[in-house]
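User: Please predict the structure of the protein below. I'd like the answer in structure-token form so I can feed it into my own downstream comparison script.

Assistant: Understood. Taking the following sequence of 219 residues as input:
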Amino acid sequence: MPIPQIEDLKARVVAYARLVEDMIEQCRASLLKRIPEALNEVVQKSEPRANEFEVELEEECTSLIAQHQPMAKELRTILMVRSMTNDLERMADHAVNIAEAALECIGLSTSHPDEDLLKLFGETLTMVDNAVRSFMEANAQLGKEVCEADESVDQLATDILERVSASMTRDPFTIERSLCILKIAGNLERIADLSTNIGEDVIYMTEGRVIKHHMAEEQ
């Protein structure tokens, strides 16, 4: 017999995902417009709410499994929500790291944010949004596209690392700001990796197929 609470569970994890997505976007916009108050809001207000979401969803998943002993796709969906909850909690932590580094950047320089860093924000946010949509729509193909997009984000993060490292070597006065840029880029790359986890889990949820160890061969 279908478990009616599953649809509510899915809606709540999507709400959690949108909160985390908003945290990342707020970091991007605040860095671009130099708004430290909005960055402080990510740390002081959004993160505690994200932590509450995590606890509530973990408890609900455990309760549904204990009460209903679900099978097949329903069980995969609940396990997907639990895994996604963990990934979102880690994304929220990375968003806080980004907010803190962005505050440092604003304090150290009046110059426009690094263009490649803004591009990395955009590509990462697209991955997060597509990962959430793939879950909402139970769209395995979109989940696979999220996994494939990770390579582009990794390459952009590597390019930033190489260019900024060279800049620090040439001009020691840029070191502090450069380290902030690298911290933001590193955390965005981790968020992209976590989006890939969600894409892989969507494929498992919809098809019962584990692709974690096969993506490299398919690409």
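That's the full token string. The mean pLDDT is 91.
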